[in-house]
Design brief:
The chain has 114 residues and is an alpha/beta fold. The protein is 37% helix and 19% strand. The protein has four helices and four strands; from the N terminus they run H-H-E-H-H-E-E-E. Strands 2-1-3-4 form a four-stranded mixed sheet, covered by helices on one side. Strand 3 and strand 4 form a beta hairpin. Helix 1 runs parallel beside helix 2. The N and C termini lie far apart (56 Å).
C-alpha cells in the first residue's frame, strides 16, 4: 500500500497531464501579464523554442482554446510553430499579429522587429 501511495503521489506531480496543466497555467499567466486585452481578429503565433521537446503545445493549449476562453475576442486565430517550423515573414502576417515564444516553462513576446 505504501508503494502504491508514493507511486500515485509521484504520478500526480510528474505525469504528462500534470506537466501539461502546469505549462498551460503558467503560459496563460505570462500572456495575461503581457497583454491585458487583445483585439478582435488578432492572430497569435506561438513558437516552440523549448530546449527539450516536452510534448505538443497545441494539445497543452487546447489548440488555442485556452486563449479564446480567457480573452473575449470573437475571432482569435492561433498558429503553432514547432521545432523546425518556419514563422512567416512579418510582411506576410495579418494585421494585429502577436508572436510569442515558449521557452520550456512559459511564454514571452517577441519584439515586432525581426
Amino acid at each position: 500500500m505504501a508503494a502504491v501511495f508514493f507511486h500515485n503521489q509521484n504520478a500526480v506531480r510528474d505525469s504528462w497531464i500534470a506537466e501539461a496543466s502546469a505549462i498551460a497555467e503558467s503560459s496563460l499567466e505570462d500572456f495575461q501579464a503581457l497583454r491585458h486585452s487583445i483585439s478582435d481578429g488578432s492572430t497569435l503565433y506561438i513558437v516552440d523554442k523549448s530546449p527539450e521537446r516536452r510534448g505538443d503545445l497545441q494539445w497543452f493549449y487546447d489548440y488555442g482554446s485556452l486563449f479564446r476562453l480567457f480573452y473575449p475576442a470573437k475571432v482569435l486565430d492561433v498558429h503553432f510553430i514547432g521545432p523546425g517550423g518556419r514563422l512567416p515573414a512579418r510582411s506576410e502576417m495579418p494585421p494585429r499579429s502577436v508572436v510569442l515564444e515558449f521557452d520550456g516553462s512559459g511564454l514571452s513576446q517577441v519584439p515586432d522587429v525581426f
